[in-house]
Amino acid sequence: MPENNGNNMQGKGVSRRDFLKLSGLLATAMGFTALPPLEESGLPAQLNQVAQPAEVLMTRALETKQRLPVIWLNFQDCTGCTEAISRSVSPSLTNLVLNTLTIEYHETLSAASGFQVEEAKKQAMEKYAGQYILVVEGSIPLANDGAYCVIGGRTALDILKETAAGAAAIIAVGSCASFGGLPKADPNPTDAKGVWELITDKPVVNIPGCPAIPEATAGTIAHFAIFGALPELDGLHRPKTFYGKTVHDRCQRRAFYEAGKFALSFDDEGAKQGWCLYKLGCKGPTTYSACATIKWDQGLSFPIQSGHPCLGCTEPNFWDGGGFYQGQSAPLERPAATAVGAALGAGAVLGIGTALVNQAKKKAKGEAK
Amino acid sequence: MNPQAMLEFARGPFFYAALLFMIFGLAYRVFTVVALGWSKDRVPNKGSKASGVVKTYLKALLIWPFIPWVKNTFDRNPLIYIGGGLFHLSLFVVVILGTPHMLVWKSLSGLSWATLPLPIVDWTAAVGIIAMIMLLINRRINPVLRLISGPAEYLSWLFVFLPMVTGYMMTHHLWLPYENLYALHMLSVDVMMIWIPLSRISHFVFYFFARTIHGAEFGKRGVAV
Question: What domains can you pick out in chain B, each with its CATH number?
């Protein structure tokens, strides 16, 4: 029997029922009711029947497709995105990412360590050259010749360039790998960069978020596994399926925003009633993410539902985008009292000066007459 | 420059610079006026200056906006009166009582206050935008207005109209993504703030000078305000 996703998962104790549930979950997460044009995907003709429900097609596609080799690199990160995936309560999802896809190298999850695991990575890169997916977690520092992140004696940039060269596609998971994230926050001491700023000759998908939503990561990898191509991306290289709408647009508290009912502090009556958190600094209106729809822990909740404003973690530079608890419409910086004073003073001095000069001119004119 | 970067620029350094320029420019203009000093009283006053000032403010705030027929401008061109009034009311409601704008004032001054529900602010904004369009048409049609309108008048109209219309589009998610419109809104606001001290939009400061001085002049002459 050829090794494919279906029998691989069954061999690892995932029941048929769980596998079907996973397929349905992925189909829903990717926004499919019926699958998009399949001719380019290389799927067998019998799968290319639009009338079939998406989850059935998804199941068959996952069953029949070859396993996808993945190399997962960690740079300046907190491993929170790995944690989010590995601790995702959805067992089938975890299985998909950790078992179905062949993770050939992962600092946290690989059983081997040291030079042995580095050797394993090297072998995988040779064996699957041009076929593997490179997942990057964490930003890449450039300051001081990359000295701030060195693994096995080599800089993050060096490792990234080498691994990216043989990758079919690159998926930057989390805000750090996508846009620099926390390490890039002002004053950015390590000169941290996101992957897409450094690798321009390969397709790079960004799955920002702090951490990235596990379903978005898994859904994007699964999309590549099934169709052999990346999903449609927006201007910031984010899959439109997961980042096509703002948190605000899908927020359960949106009606309160429209009605002008706002919580003014975290323990007032408005907060208890579940009113809008805009005045407490919610960044939902400018934050593109599926946070409010997919949510976390199997759809249990997401920050706004739990009473905390959105921080805007899927957008670039969100750490420097004004105070977390400051209204989103507020300017990023409040002018210092000295700056305002200086502007006022300069205006006053110049104004009085002009008035005096004008008076003197008028007087001189009068005397001349 | 992507929309996010443009938004950061418009909310950050550009806003900062525009605000300081506006403060500087208004201070300059106010002090050139203040430094002129009061005119001297050359004859004994017939009435009280102070009561003239109080009366003129009361009349301007409480009577003229609500009983328009006491002003003959209403008879000559009601459009300017009604359109201008609605526009100013709209501006006040949106900029002071709209939630996002209150948060701007709060971030700058630390003071906050209750705001109106979005639909009310929204309809008021629409009324303001329509009023502005009507006033522009009137300015183009009315021969006298047309004659006294130069580039500065049309620029003033444009620099106020752009923030209003981008703000409205942003609230309703019209045509462009939210953050693009937000960036355009902030850019237009920044440009307007730079334009304010250079133009007659600064009347929101000088109005009070004019009113006070007229009130005092009327008062001391014992003329009905």
Answer: 45-221 (1.20.950)
